[in-house]
Amino acid sequence: MALRGLQTDFSHTKWFPHVSPSHFLLFGLMLSYFTTLSSQVQACSMKCKSKNISSQYQHCGIRSDGVHDLDCFGKYYSRGTINCVWKPGNHASDRTHTFIIQQPAKKYCRACHNITRFSQSVKLYENPNMTVEVFENSRSRNCTKAIFRGSPTSLFRCGPPSNVSFSRHSGRLDVNVSWKQEDVKAITYYSVRYKVVSSPSWNETNVESKDWSSCRVEDLNSSLVYIVQIRCVRNEKCSQCPWSEAYNVLPELTTQPVIVSIEDNDINEKQGRRLVSVTWTFSASELHDGYYVSIGKASGEAPCQQIKTSEPEIRLILSHSAYQLNISAANNASVSPAVSQTIPQREDMYGMEEEKLNVTVHNNTSFTIYWKDDLIKTFVCYSVEWREKGHNALYMSFYQNVQNSRTLFPLPEPLEPYKRYSITLHTRPDKETCNMKHINNSESTYGSTQFYFMEGSPISAPANISKLNVTLKSVLLQWSSIPEEDIRGFLLGYIIHYTEYHQRGTSTENNITVDPELNSYELSDLRSGTAYQVQISGFTSGGAGVRSTASFFKTDPENFNLSSVITVFAVVATVLIFGTPIIKRAKAVLWPSIPNPGNSNAMQKIDRACELELAAINTLQVEEWDTNSLQIVEKEAVIPASTLPLVLPLLCAAEDEEDAPEMTCDWNQTDTDSAAGETSPGDATDMFSDTQQTNLQSSPMVFSGGYTTMEMFQQTMPQRVAVNTAVIEGMESQPENTTVLKSGMDYVRQFSTSPSLDSEQPSTILW
């Protein structure tokens, strides 16, 4: 109420134009505090109404279940004031107390009534002895009391300490204490007593400190639990030094935690950050209170954040930079050896575009970094880290809100030539100072690239060159990459130098350039049975490097190939077995060499002119030919036996001129209807022989082709008409008959009389 009234009275600043409202609030709080304190002091500043005020509480007794443990003390630098504390009874329902202090030598008596708390401060004289009485439920029949007597000069109390910390290592216990502000100037030393938790007695001698804050206890068993108490060493300013509460000091932790797993996952909604989850175990789990996890940048940039956790796991949101992680188990007296783990820099920056950064090196102490996006619209604080492989990163943070680039000068360390550096740009959400405030969930990685201060040619060559799959014309080469520290620049590719050795002792060298990503290449278009030498080198913008050690190989010669011979033999055999019928069949279908005589122009005209009818079939036998016979039946006029010798020369004249000259036309005719007066076979044979000798030499019927056309036939027939007139006349007088001729010929020969002859003239076709 007093504070509310104060705020109401001074809420108008026109009365106090130079005082802010916060001053009013502070003044009100102070006034309220002193008002309350004054009311308490006034309650105990009441003088006793009678000289023997204690007689009013004669019905109150001292009992163990009543008010007890009354204790009064003072401070050296607050002389004239004492503080008294007590503990209430167990059965007090109302728990109101009456406090009375008396100094008979000074006739000093003060009384405080209806106190509900369990402490009281009161002013008194410094030297005379005093008596303090506390009555509980003074108006009840169950009233109890507690009495304290002493001299104010002997009541200067120091301690106990306000804060105590322990540290155990190598069988020693280090104790560090802090005291209340009013005790710091009075205390010079303190002592420590200890015992094993299962022991009933304390150690024989106490251990005193060397100053007011720290003390060391030696020769302890690091695996045992101890109970420790602390108190100050008495002096004129500290006449009372009570023991502190008992502290349990846990055993010394000598083993370190064991990291079980580290998971590094991307955060989709936070590009440039990653979620690192770390889990571990600790063997002495019952002897520790928790774990200390410290995380800091591997570059050494401040701060190193320390996190306390009770669970053996932790999750951190970090950038793609490298970090150093330390994990220790801890209890109230010991910290275990830390297990250290480096969280490596993220090389594959998921979701980040390439060529987002570019670096221009001016000299070995200055370079300019450029970034692609317009980041200054969002961020103004940046950090750049660059490092050589195998070394700690260097860093520089800066403020930039004008352009998408920054020239860093001077660098903490000069750049070295022929060394590859990785550089990373981080963004920070801070707006004022660009120094990192904390590690967890602070900065994000924008991008990364590589650069050289100066490039050179490689100082080593590809190794482990192997030659695989050597054939007649090719070979497969494989090799190992050049170590990064020996490249001394960005590798642009490999050069394969291969030399061909000729039989005359000369050689030819050729070069082939392949991409830097390749570690194998097939050389082709080589000569068979030829020796080659191969060397491989890498090249950068600084030039070609050294060549590898020469490696030799020889292509396979063109040897006899049994499989090829077997294949050719199989093909030839197949052609010989199956080829002839196929060729004949194809020839018959595609290129018929013998036309059908029945479809020829000559046969059509003969059929129309003669209109012969088939009467009978007789068989002619060729006795001396050793061939198969094909029987052809034609309708023709019966040739009398007397005229047959005249006809046969004509038939023989139609034979192909390719036939052997010694071949004779020895034809025998069998006629079942022959008359007794016909010409004998012997005469006919003689006549045939004479006629054959004449006609074979002079007959124009000998054709070069396999058959004759009607036009050619007509040209030759008039020359034959005169010779054969007698034969034709004899044939006309005979009845029709059927003649069957046998021949071993494979093709058709045509014979016909002139179309000018009578229709009854003979027409004969032979195969």
UniProtKB/TrEMBL annotation:
The keyword Nucleotidyltransferase is assigned to this record:
no
Pfam families assigned: fn3
Which keywords are on file for this protein? Repeat
- Domain Fibronectin type-III: residue ranges: 160-258, 461-558
* Record InterPro entries: ECM_Regulatory_Proteins, FN3_dom, FN3_sf, Ig-like_fold
Q: What name does the UniProt record give this protein?
A: Fibronectin type-III domain-containing protein
Organism of origin: Amphiprion percula
